[in-house]
Amino acid sequence: MAPRTSILLILYHFHKALSLPQAFSSDAFAISTDQSADASHIPAASIAPESQGGVWTSLTAAGSSTPTTADVTATPTSPSPTTSGASIVGDGNDDDGTPTGDSANDFIAAPQETARAGFIPVYPAGGAFVAELNIGDNLLYLRVDTGSFHFWVISNLMPDICTSAIRAGSGCYTQGTSATPLPTATAGYTFRYRDGVKASGSSAVIENVGAAGIFGSVAWASQVVALPATVTPWDGNSGVSGVFPLGFSAQAYQEARAGGSANLTEIIDQSPLGLNNWHFFTTYFKPGAQMFLGFDYDPVELYRGPLAEVSIAAINGSWFVQPDESWSTAAQGSATAAATTDAGSAMPTSTGPAMATGADSDTLADTTATVSATESVETTTTVQRSSSDAPMETTEIMKRQHHPANVVKRQLGSERLPILLDTGSEDTYIDADTVKAIYTALSGSCLTIQGSLHNCTYPCTFDHANFAISPEYPATIQLPWGASAISIDTKQLVAEVYDECEPEKGKKSCSSTCRGSIQAQKSGAAHYVYGAVVYKSAFFKWDTSGNGTVGMAPYSDRGGEPWFYE
Protein backbone atom coordinates (compact mmCIF):
# COMPACT_ATOMS: atom_id res chain seq x y z
CA MET A 1 0.00 0.00 0.00
CA ALA A 2 1.33 3.43 -0.90
CA PRO A 3 2.54 5.52 2.07
CA ARG A 4 0.11 8.35 1.28
CA THR A 5 -2.83 5.93 1.21
CA SER A 6 -1.72 4.46 4.52
CA ILE A 7 -1.61 7.90 6.10
CA LEU A 8 -5.08 8.76 4.89
CA LEU A 9 -6.46 5.47 6.23
CA ILE A 10 -4.78 6.07 9.56
CA LEU A 11 -6.26 9.55 9.76
CA TYR A 12 -9.68 8.15 8.96
CA HIS A 13 -9.53 5.45 11.64
CA PHE A 14 -8.37 7.93 14.22
CA HIS A 15 -10.89 10.63 13.36
CA LYS A 16 -12.65 10.14 16.69
CA ALA A 17 -9.44 10.41 18.63
CA LEU A 18 -8.29 13.62 16.99
CA SER A 19 -9.65 16.23 19.34
CA LEU A 20 -6.57 18.01 20.66
CA PRO A 21 -5.56 20.70 21.03
CA GLN A 22 -8.14 23.48 20.86
CA ALA A 23 -6.81 26.98 21.09
CA PHE A 24 -7.03 28.88 24.35
CA SER A 25 -8.28 32.43 24.39
CA SER A 26 -8.34 34.34 27.65
CA ASP A 27 -11.47 36.13 28.76
CA ALA A 28 -9.30 39.17 29.52
CA PHE A 29 -8.45 40.71 26.17
CA ALA A 30 -5.44 42.84 25.26
CA ILE A 31 -6.22 44.70 22.05
CA SER A 32 -3.54 45.89 19.68
CA THR A 33 -2.96 46.56 16.00
CA ASP A 34 0.11 46.30 13.82
CA GLN A 35 0.70 49.04 11.30
CA SER A 36 4.19 47.80 10.50
CA ALA A 37 2.82 44.62 8.94
CA ASP A 38 1.21 46.44 6.05
CA ALA A 39 0.29 49.94 4.93
CA SER A 40 -3.37 49.09 5.38
CA HIS A 41 -3.03 47.59 8.83
CA ILE A 42 -5.29 45.41 10.92
CA PRO A 43 -8.11 47.57 12.30
CA ALA A 44 -9.30 46.56 15.73
CA ALA A 45 -11.58 49.53 16.27
CA SER A 46 -14.72 47.49 15.65
CA ILE A 47 -14.32 45.74 19.01
CA ALA A 48 -15.14 48.09 21.84
CA PRO A 49 -12.42 48.22 24.52
CA GLU A 50 -14.96 48.65 27.31
CA SER A 51 -16.22 45.18 26.43
CA GLN A 52 -12.77 43.63 26.39
CA GLY A 53 -10.88 45.11 29.31
CA GLY A 54 -7.82 45.98 27.24
CA VAL A 55 -5.82 49.02 26.18
CA TRP A 56 -5.78 50.13 22.57
CA THR A 57 -2.27 50.09 21.13
CA SER A 58 -1.08 51.29 17.74
CA LEU A 59 2.32 50.13 16.55
CA THR A 60 4.32 52.48 14.39
CA ALA A 61 6.44 51.41 11.45
CA ALA A 62 9.48 51.87 13.65
CA GLY A 63 8.17 49.24 16.01
CA SER A 64 7.37 51.43 19.02
CA SER A 65 4.00 51.35 20.70
CA THR A 66 1.91 54.13 22.13
CA PRO A 67 -1.23 53.32 24.10
CA THR A 68 -4.20 55.48 23.27
CA THR A 69 -7.38 55.77 25.22
CA ALA A 70 -10.54 54.99 23.31
CA ASP A 71 -13.78 56.91 23.76
CA VAL A 72 -14.71 55.35 27.07
CA THR A 73 -15.30 56.83 30.46
CA ALA A 74 -12.57 54.78 32.08
CA THR A 75 -9.46 53.27 30.57
CA PRO A 76 -9.50 49.51 31.10
CA THR A 77 -6.53 47.81 32.66
CA SER A 78 -4.36 45.68 30.41
CA PRO A 79 -4.16 42.02 31.33
CA SER A 80 -0.95 40.86 32.89
CA PRO A 81 1.39 38.62 30.89
CA THR A 82 0.12 35.66 32.87
CA THR A 83 -3.41 36.03 31.49
CA SER A 84 -3.04 37.68 28.12
CA GLY A 85 -2.87 35.15 25.38
CA ALA A 86 -2.41 31.54 24.54
CA SER A 87 1.00 31.27 26.17
CA ILE A 88 2.13 31.72 29.71
CA VAL A 89 5.85 32.21 30.14
CA GLY A 90 7.23 30.10 32.96
CA ASP A 91 10.00 27.73 33.91
CA GLY A 92 7.97 24.64 33.14
CA ASN A 93 7.51 23.83 36.83
CA ASP A 94 5.39 26.72 38.03
CA ASP A 95 2.74 29.00 36.63
CA ASP A 96 3.94 32.37 37.89
CA GLY A 97 4.36 33.71 34.37
CA THR A 98 7.77 35.22 35.09
CA PRO A 99 9.57 36.01 31.83
CA THR A 100 13.04 34.66 31.31
CA GLY A 101 16.13 36.83 31.47
CA ASP A 102 18.01 35.03 28.72
CA SER A 103 19.27 37.28 25.95
CA ALA A 104 18.89 35.73 22.52
CA ASN A 105 18.65 38.87 20.45
CA ASP A 106 21.41 37.71 18.09
CA PHE A 107 19.37 34.63 17.29
CA ILE A 108 16.12 36.32 16.39
CA ALA A 109 15.07 35.10 12.98
CA ALA A 110 15.77 37.75 10.36
CA PRO A 111 12.70 39.26 8.68
CA GLN A 112 11.37 36.45 6.56
CA GLU A 113 12.05 37.63 3.03
CA THR A 114 11.95 34.22 1.37
CA ALA A 115 8.37 33.14 0.82
CA ARG A 116 6.42 31.57 -2.00
CA ALA A 117 2.66 31.97 -2.37
CA GLY A 118 0.54 28.88 -2.88
CA PHE A 119 -1.47 26.40 -0.88
CA ILE A 120 -1.17 23.53 1.59
CA PRO A 121 -3.28 20.35 1.45
CA VAL A 122 -5.67 19.95 4.38
CA TYR A 123 -7.66 16.92 5.53
CA PRO A 124 -10.63 16.66 7.92
CA ALA A 125 -10.11 14.63 11.06
CA GLY A 126 -12.19 14.43 14.21
CA GLY A 127 -14.13 17.60 13.44
CA ALA A 128 -10.94 19.60 12.90
CA PHE A 129 -8.51 20.19 10.05
CA VAL A 130 -5.01 18.78 9.57
CA ALA A 131 -2.37 20.34 7.29
CA GLU A 132 0.29 18.24 5.54
CA LEU A 133 3.62 20.06 5.87
CA ASN A 134 7.32 19.62 5.32
CA ILE A 135 9.29 21.09 8.22
CA GLY A 136 12.94 20.73 7.37
CA ASP A 137 13.37 17.12 6.30
CA ASN A 138 10.24 15.95 8.14
CA LEU A 139 6.71 15.29 6.88
CA LEU A 140 4.21 16.21 9.61
CA TYR A 141 0.45 16.50 10.01
CA LEU A 142 -0.43 19.52 12.15
CA ARG A 143 -3.70 20.87 13.44
CA VAL A 144 -4.74 24.07 11.62
CA ASP A 145 -5.55 26.59 14.33
CA THR A 146 -6.59 30.20 13.71
CA GLY A 147 -7.05 30.56 17.48
CA SER A 148 -3.35 30.14 18.31
CA PHE A 149 -0.15 31.93 17.34
CA HIS A 150 2.41 29.43 18.66
CA PHE A 151 4.04 27.09 16.16
CA TRP A 152 5.14 23.85 17.84
CA VAL A 153 5.61 20.21 16.93
CA ILE A 154 6.09 16.78 18.46
CA SER A 155 9.79 15.93 18.25
CA ASN A 156 12.27 13.29 19.34
CA LEU A 157 12.67 15.24 22.59
CA MET A 158 9.63 13.16 23.64
CA PRO A 159 10.63 9.63 22.57
CA ASP A 160 7.46 7.82 23.62
CA ILE A 161 5.06 10.27 21.98
CA CYS A 162 7.36 10.50 18.97
CA THR A 163 7.24 6.73 18.46
CA SER A 164 3.45 6.69 18.75
CA ALA A 165 3.12 9.59 16.31
CA ILE A 166 5.27 7.83 13.73
CA ARG A 167 3.17 4.69 14.07
CA ALA A 168 -0.01 6.76 13.68
CA GLY A 169 1.37 8.33 10.51
CA SER A 170 1.35 11.93 11.76
CA GLY A 171 5.14 12.18 11.88
CA CYS A 172 7.75 13.28 14.38
CA TYR A 173 10.25 16.11 13.96
CA THR A 174 13.99 15.40 14.04
CA GLN A 175 16.56 18.14 13.53
CA GLY A 176 18.43 17.99 10.26
CA THR A 177 20.98 20.07 8.40
CA SER A 178 18.41 22.78 7.59
CA ALA A 179 17.70 23.51 11.27
CA THR A 180 19.29 26.34 13.23
CA PRO A 181 18.89 25.63 16.96
CA LEU A 182 18.04 28.58 19.16
CA PRO A 183 19.78 28.79 22.55
CA THR A 184 18.04 26.78 25.23
CA ALA A 185 16.23 29.01 27.69
CA THR A 186 16.96 28.75 31.41
CA ALA A 187 13.29 29.32 32.03
CA GLY A 188 11.18 28.06 29.19
CA TYR A 189 7.75 28.47 27.70
CA THR A 190 4.35 26.98 28.40
CA PHE A 191 1.42 26.99 25.98
CA ARG A 192 -2.00 26.30 27.48
CA TYR A 193 -5.20 25.47 25.64
CA ARG A 194 -8.77 25.64 26.85
CA ASP A 195 -9.28 21.89 26.51
CA GLY A 196 -6.59 21.27 29.14
CA VAL A 197 -3.60 20.56 26.89
CA LYS A 198 -0.32 22.05 28.07
CA ALA A 199 2.92 22.08 26.07
CA SER A 200 6.11 23.09 27.91
CA GLY A 201 9.76 23.24 26.98
CA SER A 202 12.87 25.34 26.50
CA SER A 203 13.97 24.44 22.95
CA ALA A 204 13.20 25.89 19.54
CA VAL A 205 14.69 25.89 16.05
CA ILE A 206 14.62 28.04 12.93
CA GLU A 207 13.41 25.88 10.06
CA ASN A 208 12.15 25.92 6.49
CA VAL A 209 8.43 25.20 6.20
CA GLY A 210 6.41 24.35 3.12
CA ALA A 211 3.68 22.28 1.54
CA ALA A 212 4.44 18.59 1.17
CA GLY A 213 5.23 17.12 -2.25
CA ILE A 214 3.37 18.24 -5.37
CA PHE A 215 0.18 19.00 -3.45
CA GLY A 216 0.79 22.69 -2.98
CA SER A 217 3.60 25.13 -3.52
CA VAL A 218 3.64 27.50 -0.54
CA ALA A 219 6.93 27.81 1.34
CA TRP A 220 8.60 29.96 3.99
CA ALA A 221 12.20 30.19 5.14
CA SER A 222 13.50 30.86 8.65
CA GLN A 223 10.40 30.06 10.67
CA VAL A 224 10.61 29.71 14.45
CA VAL A 225 9.25 26.34 15.61
CA ALA A 226 9.06 25.38 19.30
CA LEU A 227 10.02 21.85 20.39
CA PRO A 228 8.26 21.14 23.71
CA ALA A 229 9.76 18.60 26.09
CA THR A 230 6.39 17.69 27.62
CA VAL A 231 2.86 17.76 26.26
CA THR A 232 0.05 16.70 28.59
CA PRO A 233 -2.41 15.23 28.13
CA TRP A 234 -1.60 14.00 24.64
CA ASP A 235 -2.65 10.99 22.60
CA GLY A 236 0.25 9.89 20.43
CA ASN A 237 -2.19 7.96 18.26
CA SER A 238 -4.37 10.99 17.55
CA GLY A 239 -3.06 11.51 14.02
CA VAL A 240 -1.71 15.00 14.71
CA SER A 241 1.81 16.06 15.68
CA GLY A 242 1.53 19.68 16.72
CA VAL A 243 -0.13 22.99 15.93
CA PHE A 244 0.10 24.99 12.71
CA PRO A 245 -1.00 28.43 13.95
CA LEU A 246 -2.74 31.14 11.97
CA GLY A 247 -3.49 33.51 14.81
CA PHE A 248 -1.57 36.72 15.45
CA SER A 249 -0.46 38.72 18.46
CA ALA A 250 0.56 42.21 17.36
CA GLN A 251 1.96 43.02 20.79
CA ALA A 252 4.16 39.91 20.90
CA TYR A 253 5.18 40.44 17.28
CA GLN A 254 6.29 43.99 17.99
CA GLU A 255 8.19 43.02 21.12
CA ALA A 256 10.05 40.29 19.28
CA ARG A 257 10.96 42.58 16.36
CA ALA A 258 11.63 45.85 18.20
CA GLY A 259 15.27 45.07 18.96
CA GLY A 260 17.13 45.25 22.23
CA SER A 261 16.99 42.35 24.65
CA ALA A 262 14.76 39.53 23.46
CA ASN A 263 14.52 36.12 25.12
CA LEU A 264 13.47 32.83 23.61
CA THR A 265 9.84 33.20 24.59
CA GLU A 266 9.63 36.56 22.84
CA ILE A 267 11.07 34.99 19.71
CA ILE A 268 8.50 32.21 19.85
CA ASP A 269 5.74 34.76 20.34
CA GLN A 270 6.39 36.50 17.04
CA SER A 271 3.97 35.97 14.18
CA PRO A 272 4.82 32.39 13.25
CA LEU A 273 4.45 32.69 9.49
CA GLY A 274 5.56 36.28 9.03
CA LEU A 275 2.86 38.79 8.09
CA ASN A 276 5.37 40.48 5.81
CA ASN A 277 5.27 37.43 3.56
CA TRP A 278 1.63 37.50 2.51
CA HIS A 279 -1.44 39.70 2.62
CA PHE A 280 -4.17 37.11 3.08
CA PHE A 281 -4.83 33.42 3.48
CA THR A 282 -7.85 31.39 2.37
CA THR A 283 -9.61 28.36 3.81
CA TYR A 284 -11.21 25.95 1.35
CA PHE A 285 -12.52 23.24 3.67
CA LYS A 286 -15.32 21.92 1.47
CA PRO A 287 -16.19 18.30 2.34
CA GLY A 288 -15.75 15.90 -0.55
CA ALA A 289 -13.18 18.10 -2.30
CA GLN A 290 -9.45 18.48 -1.85
CA MET A 291 -9.26 20.93 1.04
CA PHE A 292 -6.47 23.48 1.27
CA LEU A 293 -5.04 26.52 2.99
CA GLY A 294 -4.05 29.19 0.48
CA PHE A 295 -1.57 32.02 1.03
CA ASP A 296 -2.02 34.94 -1.36
CA TYR A 297 -4.00 32.35 -3.30
CA ASP A 298 -7.62 33.20 -4.12
CA PRO A 299 -9.24 30.72 -6.57
CA VAL A 300 -12.44 32.64 -7.36
CA GLU A 301 -13.91 29.69 -9.26
CA LEU A 302 -14.26 27.75 -6.01
CA TYR A 303 -16.87 30.05 -4.45
CA ARG A 304 -20.02 31.81 -5.60
CA GLY A 305 -20.63 35.52 -5.76
CA PRO A 306 -18.80 38.39 -4.06
CA LEU A 307 -17.26 37.94 -0.63
CA ALA A 308 -19.24 39.28 2.32
CA GLU A 309 -16.54 41.06 4.31
CA VAL A 310 -16.47 41.99 8.00
CA SER A 311 -13.76 43.71 10.03
CA ILE A 312 -11.46 41.55 12.11
CA ALA A 313 -9.22 42.16 15.12
CA ALA A 314 -6.29 40.25 16.58
CA ILE A 315 -6.90 39.73 20.29
CA ASN A 316 -4.50 37.67 22.40
CA GLY A 317 -3.29 35.82 19.36
CA SER A 318 -6.75 34.92 18.05
CA TRP A 319 -9.02 36.43 15.40
CA PHE A 320 -12.30 38.01 16.49
CA VAL A 321 -15.17 39.76 14.74
CA GLN A 322 -17.59 42.09 16.50
CA PRO A 323 -21.26 41.98 15.43
CA ASP A 324 -22.99 45.34 15.17
CA GLU A 325 -26.22 46.84 13.85
CA SER A 326 -25.35 45.90 10.28
CA TRP A 327 -25.33 42.18 10.97
CA SER A 328 -28.12 40.20 9.36
CA THR A 329 -30.87 38.06 10.78
CA ALA A 330 -30.01 34.44 11.48
CA ALA A 331 -32.68 31.87 10.75
CA GLN A 332 -33.26 28.25 11.50
CA GLY A 333 -36.05 26.18 10.05
CA SER A 334 -37.41 24.24 7.13
CA ALA A 335 -40.59 23.84 5.13
CA THR A 336 -42.17 22.17 8.13
CA ALA A 337 -40.68 24.04 11.06
CA ALA A 338 -39.04 27.42 11.30
CA ALA A 339 -37.63 29.75 13.89
CA THR A 340 -36.14 33.11 12.97
CA THR A 341 -34.65 35.95 14.89
CA ASP A 342 -36.11 39.37 14.24
CA ALA A 343 -33.25 41.72 13.37
CA GLY A 344 -35.57 44.67 12.90
CA SER A 345 -36.98 45.96 16.15
CA ALA A 346 -38.40 49.10 17.64
CA MET A 347 -35.64 48.98 20.22
CA PRO A 348 -32.39 50.49 18.91
CA THR A 349 -30.35 48.04 20.97
CA SER A 350 -32.09 44.92 19.71
CA THR A 351 -30.28 44.57 16.41
CA GLY A 352 -27.40 42.22 15.83
CA PRO A 353 -26.67 38.56 15.21
CA ALA A 354 -28.67 35.72 16.64
CA MET A 355 -25.84 34.60 18.83
CA ALA A 356 -25.38 38.01 20.40
CA THR A 357 -27.70 37.41 23.33
CA GLY A 358 -25.98 35.66 26.19
CA ALA A 359 -27.69 32.73 27.85
CA ASP A 360 -27.63 34.63 31.13
CA SER A 361 -28.80 37.94 29.69
CA ASP A 362 -31.63 39.75 31.45
CA THR A 363 -32.58 41.55 28.26
CA LEU A 364 -34.06 38.60 26.43
CA ALA A 365 -37.63 39.13 25.29
CA ASP A 366 -39.33 36.28 23.45
CA THR A 367 -42.29 37.00 21.23
CA THR A 368 -44.02 33.91 19.89
CA ALA A 369 -46.64 33.50 17.22
CA THR A 370 -50.15 32.38 18.13
CA VAL A 371 -49.96 28.97 19.74
CA SER A 372 -51.80 26.30 17.83
CA ALA A 373 -51.95 22.55 17.63
CA THR A 374 -49.56 22.62 14.70
CA GLU A 375 -46.61 24.03 16.62
CA SER A 376 -43.88 22.13 18.42
CA VAL A 377 -44.49 21.29 22.06
CA GLU A 378 -41.90 21.12 24.79
CA THR A 379 -42.04 18.70 27.71
CA THR A 380 -39.59 18.97 30.58
CA THR A 381 -38.65 16.09 32.85
CA THR A 382 -36.61 16.64 35.99
CA VAL A 383 -34.17 13.88 36.88
CA GLN A 384 -32.46 13.77 40.28
CA ARG A 385 -29.16 11.91 39.84
CA SER A 386 -28.25 11.75 43.52
CA SER A 387 -28.80 13.65 46.70
CA SER A 388 -25.64 15.66 46.11
CA ASP A 389 -26.22 16.43 42.45
CA ALA A 390 -28.10 19.39 41.05
CA PRO A 391 -31.44 18.62 39.39
CA MET A 392 -30.96 17.71 35.75
CA GLU A 393 -33.62 18.42 33.18
CA THR A 394 -34.06 17.04 29.71
CA THR A 395 -36.03 19.20 27.33
CA GLU A 396 -37.66 17.08 24.66
CA ILE A 397 -38.85 18.91 21.55
CA MET A 398 -41.59 16.72 20.13
CA LYS A 399 -42.39 16.98 16.45
CA ARG A 400 -46.04 17.39 15.59
CA GLN A 401 -47.62 18.62 12.41
CA HIS A 402 -45.93 21.92 11.58
CA HIS A 403 -46.95 24.65 9.22
CA PRO A 404 -44.66 27.26 7.61
CA ALA A 405 -46.89 30.03 8.91
CA ASN A 406 -46.12 29.10 12.49
CA VAL A 407 -42.83 30.93 12.84
CA VAL A 408 -41.37 31.72 16.23
CA LYS A 409 -39.77 35.15 16.32
CA ARG A 410 -37.88 36.86 19.07
CA GLN A 411 -36.29 40.22 19.61
CA LEU A 412 -32.60 40.28 20.25
CA GLY A 413 -31.18 41.53 23.50
CA SER A 414 -28.78 44.45 23.68
CA GLU A 415 -25.68 42.36 24.37
CA ARG A 416 -23.44 41.71 21.37
CA LEU A 417 -20.45 39.55 22.17
CA PRO A 418 -17.41 39.21 19.93
CA ILE A 419 -17.06 35.97 17.98
CA LEU A 420 -13.85 33.94 17.98
CA LEU A 421 -13.09 32.50 14.53
CA ASP A 422 -11.46 29.21 15.46
CA THR A 423 -10.69 26.46 12.96
CA GLY A 424 -9.17 24.53 15.86
CA SER A 425 -12.50 24.21 17.67
CA GLU A 426 -14.69 21.22 16.81
CA ASP A 427 -17.77 22.90 18.27
CA THR A 428 -19.50 26.20 17.52
CA TYR A 429 -20.77 28.00 20.63
CA ILE A 430 -23.56 30.58 20.34
CA ASP A 431 -26.41 31.83 22.52
CA ALA A 432 -28.86 29.43 24.14
CA ASP A 433 -32.00 30.81 22.49
CA THR A 434 -30.64 30.32 18.99
CA VAL A 435 -29.37 26.84 19.87
CA LYS A 436 -32.80 25.96 21.21
CA ALA A 437 -34.40 27.19 17.97
CA ILE A 438 -31.98 25.13 15.90
CA TYR A 439 -32.71 21.89 17.71
CA THR A 440 -36.43 22.63 17.70
CA ALA A 441 -36.24 22.74 13.91
CA LEU A 442 -34.29 19.47 13.95
CA SER A 443 -36.80 17.86 16.37
CA GLY A 444 -33.97 17.40 18.82
CA SER A 445 -33.40 17.80 22.53
CA CYS A 446 -30.99 19.47 24.94
CA LEU A 447 -29.93 18.57 28.45
CA THR A 448 -30.76 21.40 30.85
CA ILE A 449 -28.64 21.74 33.99
CA GLN A 450 -29.39 24.63 36.34
CA GLY A 451 -31.04 26.55 33.52
CA SER A 452 -28.24 26.11 30.97
CA LEU A 453 -28.39 24.00 27.82
CA HIS A 454 -25.90 21.18 27.38
CA ASN A 455 -25.31 18.31 24.99
CA CYS A 456 -27.93 19.11 22.35
CA THR A 457 -28.78 16.16 20.11
CA TYR A 458 -31.05 15.46 17.15
CA PRO A 459 -32.45 12.44 15.29
CA CYS A 460 -30.15 11.55 12.42
CA THR A 461 -29.97 9.05 9.58
CA PHE A 462 -26.88 6.98 8.87
CA ASP A 463 -26.51 5.98 5.23
CA HIS A 464 -24.24 2.94 5.20
CA ALA A 465 -23.82 3.07 1.42
CA ASN A 466 -21.80 6.30 1.49
CA PHE A 467 -21.19 6.75 5.24
CA ALA A 468 -23.21 9.97 5.20
CA ILE A 469 -25.00 11.24 8.31
CA SER A 470 -27.92 13.62 7.82
CA PRO A 471 -30.67 15.04 10.05
CA GLU A 472 -33.74 12.83 10.01
CA TYR A 473 -35.85 15.98 9.79
CA PRO A 474 -34.13 18.32 7.28
CA ALA A 475 -33.82 21.95 8.30
CA THR A 476 -32.15 25.11 7.09
CA ILE A 477 -29.66 26.58 9.55
CA GLN A 478 -28.03 29.95 9.00
CA LEU A 479 -25.61 31.85 11.18
CA PRO A 480 -25.15 35.59 10.62
CA TRP A 481 -22.12 37.07 8.92
CA GLY A 482 -22.25 40.82 8.47
CA ALA A 483 -25.12 41.69 6.16
CA SER A 484 -25.08 38.12 4.87
CA ALA A 485 -25.49 34.69 6.47
CA ILE A 486 -23.58 31.42 6.53
CA SER A 487 -25.75 28.53 5.35
CA ILE A 488 -24.66 25.58 7.46
CA ASP A 489 -24.15 22.26 5.69
CA THR A 490 -26.30 20.09 7.96
CA LYS A 491 -24.54 16.93 6.76
CA GLN A 492 -21.50 18.31 8.60
CA LEU A 493 -23.40 19.19 11.77
CA VAL A 494 -22.79 15.87 13.51
CA ALA A 495 -20.09 15.83 16.18
CA GLU A 496 -20.74 12.33 17.50
CA VAL A 497 -23.12 9.43 16.87
CA TYR A 498 -24.44 8.14 20.18
CA ASP A 499 -26.15 4.88 19.25
CA GLU A 500 -24.80 3.00 16.27
CA CYS A 501 -27.37 1.28 14.12
CA GLU A 502 -27.53 -1.30 11.35
CA PRO A 503 -30.00 -0.96 8.45
CA GLU A 504 -32.80 -3.46 8.29
CA LYS A 505 -32.68 -6.02 5.53
CA GLY A 506 -33.38 -4.38 2.20
CA LYS A 507 -32.66 -0.85 3.50
CA LYS A 508 -29.56 1.29 3.09
CA SER A 509 -29.95 3.55 6.11
CA CYS A 510 -31.04 3.52 9.73
CA SER A 511 -32.01 6.04 12.41
CA SER A 512 -29.73 7.11 15.24
CA THR A 513 -29.10 9.99 17.64
CA CYS A 514 -26.40 12.56 16.91
CA ARG A 515 -24.75 15.18 19.06
CA GLY A 516 -24.64 18.45 17.16
CA SER A 517 -21.50 20.53 16.76
CA ILE A 518 -23.46 23.74 17.45
CA GLN A 519 -23.91 24.09 21.19
CA ALA A 520 -24.87 26.79 23.70
CA GLN A 521 -22.04 28.92 25.05
CA LYS A 522 -21.65 28.73 28.81
CA SER A 523 -23.28 31.40 30.91
CA GLY A 524 -21.08 34.42 31.50
CA ALA A 525 -18.63 33.69 28.68
CA ALA A 526 -16.97 36.73 27.11
CA HIS A 527 -17.33 35.59 23.51
CA TYR A 528 -18.93 33.12 21.13
CA VAL A 529 -17.09 30.70 18.85
CA TYR A 530 -17.46 29.87 15.17
CA GLY A 531 -15.91 26.41 14.92
CA ALA A 532 -15.22 23.76 12.29
CA VAL A 533 -18.73 23.38 10.83
CA VAL A 534 -18.68 27.05 9.77
CA TYR A 535 -15.57 26.59 7.61
CA LYS A 536 -16.89 23.35 6.15
CA SER A 537 -19.95 25.30 5.03
CA ALA A 538 -18.35 28.30 3.29
CA PHE A 539 -15.19 29.70 1.72
CA PHE A 540 -13.26 32.28 3.77
CA LYS A 541 -10.65 34.81 2.73
CA TRP A 542 -8.72 36.04 5.75
CA ASP A 543 -7.32 39.40 4.62
CA THR A 544 -5.59 39.81 7.95
CA SER A 545 -2.36 41.46 6.84
CA GLY A 546 -3.94 43.57 4.14
CA ASN A 547 -7.33 45.17 4.68
CA GLY A 548 -8.11 43.79 8.14
CA THR A 549 -11.19 41.89 7.00
CA VAL A 550 -12.46 38.36 6.61
CA GLY A 551 -14.69 37.62 3.62
CA MET A 552 -17.15 34.75 3.30
CA ALA A 553 -18.91 33.25 0.27
CA PRO A 554 -20.80 29.99 -0.40
CA TYR A 555 -18.83 27.20 -1.99
CA SER A 556 -19.35 26.75 -5.71
CA ASP A 557 -20.81 23.51 -7.04
CA ARG A 558 -17.41 22.59 -8.37
CA GLY A 559 -15.60 19.99 -6.31
CA GLY A 560 -13.40 16.96 -6.55
CA GLU A 561 -11.63 18.21 -9.68
CA PRO A 562 -7.83 18.34 -9.92
CA TRP A 563 -7.67 22.07 -9.30
CA PHE A 564 -4.20 21.72 -7.80
CA TYR A 565 -2.66 20.90 -11.19
CA GLU A 566 -4.04 23.98 -12.94
From TrEMBL:
<feature type="compositionally biased region" description="Low complexity">
    <location>
        <begin position="64"/>
        <end position="91"/>
    </location>
</feature>
<feature type="region of interest" description="Disordered">
    <location>
        <begin position="57"/>
        <end position="104"/>
    </location>
</feature>
<keyword id="KW-0645">Protease</keyword>
<feature type="region of interest" description="Disordered">
    <location>
        <begin position="331"/>
        <end position="403"/>
    </location>
</feature>
<keyword id="KW-0378">Hydrolase</keyword>
<feature type="compositionally biased region" description="Low complexity">
    <location>
        <begin position="356"/>
        <end position="382"/>
    </location>
</feature>
<dbReference type="InterPro" id="IPR001969">
    <property type="entry name" value="Aspartic_peptidase_AS"/>
</dbReference>
<dbReference type="Pfam" id="PF00026">
    <property type="entry name" value="Asp"/>
</dbReference>
<keyword id="KW-0064">Aspartyl protease</keyword>
<feature type="domain" description="Peptidase A1">
    <location>
        <begin position="129"/>
        <end position="553"/>
    </location>
</feature>
<keyword id="KW-0732">Signal</keyword>
<dbReference type="GO" id="GO:0006508">
    <property type="term" value="P:proteolysis"/>
</dbReference>
<dbReference type="GO" id="GO:0004190">
    <property type="term" value="F:aspartic-type endopeptidase activity"/>
</dbReference>
<feature type="signal peptide">
    <location>
        <begin position="1"/>
        <end position="19"/>
    </location>
</feature>
<dbReference type="InterPro" id="IPR033121">
    <property type="entry name" value="PEPTIDASE_A1"/>
</dbReference>
<protein>
    <recommendedName>
        <fullName>Peptidase A1 domain-containing protein</fullName>
    </recommendedName>
</protein>
<feature type="compositionally biased region" description="Low complexity">
    <location>
        <begin position="331"/>
        <end position="346"/>
    </location>
</feature>
<dbReference type="InterPro" id="IPR021109">
    <property type="entry name" value="Peptidase_aspartic_dom_sf"/>
</dbReference>
